[in-house]
Design goal:
With about 200 residues, the protein is mostly beta strands. Helix content is about 5%, strand content about 45%.
Length: about 200
């Protein structure tokens, strides 16, 4: 069934499952030094927060209608720090009418509770099974917020496969203080290098 609103569902989704890939580019992010961002699987800085924007037209082209999201995956293209662990790794989701990210999007809900997530030592898709599936209404744009907060930094960032977008699809900040929930820091920035 097509959800009527964006929210955590109160009843299980009925219907068939669809696996969709948004972005088929073969570029990497960060494109230069592994001390840079965006990448959700690296903590050269102790803490990093990203928001990714997916337009409803992109989602509909792959999925066909609204539905319940129960997992999300990103492609790791280069392991720079083998067997690293992202501590306090949390995923939030929410809907928006914004068509580009120029500031933090508010009113998101936690779909993957904070926990330590091992990165491993192999390239490929890294799957996060959501603790709380999220209903997407099929008409709104979708924001995915991913934050981690490690006790220490200086580990070189693992690189991710990405597809450039024509709009600001990535908004992020990083630092040695906790970035999760912060609304603005000196390192706050945006770009178009959205991970696949």
């Amino acid at each position: 069934t097509n959800p009527q609103s964006c929210c955590l569902p109160t009843t299980p989704c009925q219907g068939h499952s669809v696996v969709a890939q948004i972005g088929t580019g073969t570029g990497v992010t960060p494109p230069a030094s592994p001390t840079l961002y965006p990448t959700i699987y690296g903590h050269y800085s102790n803490s990093v927060r990203h928001q990714f924007l997916y337009l409803h037209s992109e989602l509909l082209a792959q999925i066909g209608s609204g539905g319940s999201i129960d997992s999300i995956s990103f492609y790791i293209s280069q392991i720079t720090t083998p067997n690293d662990t992202m501590q306090n790794f949390e995923i939030k989701m929410g809907c928006t009418q914004e068509t580009a990210l120029n500031n933090w999007q508010p009113n998101l809900v936690t779909v993957f509770s904070p926990k330590n997530v091992p990165v491993g030592n192999t390239v490929g898709w890294k799957v996060s099974k959501l603790d709380f599936p999220y209903d997407w209404d099929g008409t709104s744009n979708l924001v995915v917020d991913i934050c981690s907060n490690n006790a220490t930094g200086s580990a070189l960032n693992n690189k991710m496969q990405m597809t450039p977008t024509t709009f600001n699809s990535v908004y992020y900040s990083y630092g040695n203080t906790n970035q999760c929930g912060v609304t603005g820091t000196p390192q706050q920035t945006r770009n178009t290098y959205r991970p696949n």
